[in-house]
Amino acid sequence: MPNLDMLLLKGPTAGVEQGLNEIRFQILAEGIPANSEGMSELRMYLWLILLNAPPLRTDVYLDLVRQGASPAHAKIQNDTFRTFQGDPLFRRRVTQNSITRVLNAVAWRLNDAHEARVNGWQSPPTLSEFGGSPDTAMMSRHSLAASIRTDASTANDAEQIGYVQGMNVLCGPFLYAARSEIEAFTGFERLITHECPGYVRGSMEGVHKGVALVDRVLQAVDEKLYTHLMNTHMEAKIYAFASVLTMCACTSPLPEVLKLWDFLFAYGPHLNILCIVAQLVLMRNDLLNSASPNQLLRSFPSLNAGAIIPLATGFTSKIPEDMYEDIVNHAK
């Protein structure tokens, strides 16, 4: 099987879907080559491919930036300086100004698209109109052979998909991994509009569904740990909200976040729910031996993607079909 460099250089030899499956397998088996700081020549290109994010014309992004402060600008300013605040790697590479520009540009894009739908105007161009089509490949929950993708529903136009607190943390890894703001914008907007729009609606309904699923999955895969946490009043809503919303990017270190996102973009961001449960299982002994697990769950231990991913993939065969479907659809 060709390595990732060759797959990107020469393209798939047996069709697009086969090429995507080869990329997914390589990521699962060997990971994306990167240095100790998580920097990689390939990562951002692979993320955009896996998210099915077609190229964006530079002038489209620049026009959004020239609009200046979006209606969400005050919220964005309040969040920007907190983005990976204690991470020297991130601070060395990503400026607050770049975070602010990308978030305001996304806020404008979402605001304009929402107004166009509500008022019956022609919708402003979306990234899908610059080429490409939604990836509808189905992921086998047992083989992890492909990923599940469905377009975001626009049926509920009364509730706008817009800026919510925490989007800055979802945006951060894109800016860290990308070579340009335009790349970061393209990947970030694709993620929140096609993969997890339920996370960024006003009510954040997708996040609440995801948090509830953490409890359900934990009960299915580790009844003893689940019962212990319930007996100590540690429902997932108390400790897992940020991990669901940010796809675990709220837990350091950043290079491990990038590795975890490689897996999530390859096989589906919805699998973050299983990754959160995997972190709990990795803490199992400490949690079971603690009369006050809330002390341990105030902040998760350092992220270890190499330990989390095998556990999470193993859970797929242990949970009921209907629960798995709920996981797939919770962020839509």
From TrEMBL:
It holds the Pfam family RabGAP-TBC. Transmembrane segments: none annotated. InterPro entries: Rab-GAP-TBC_dom (IPR000195), Rab-GAP_TBC_sf (IPR035969). GO terms for molecular function: GTPase activator activity. GO terms for biological process: negative regulation of septation initiation signaling. GO terms for cellular component: mitotic spindle pole body. This is Rab-GAP TBC domain-containing protein. It comes from Pseudopithomyces chartarum.
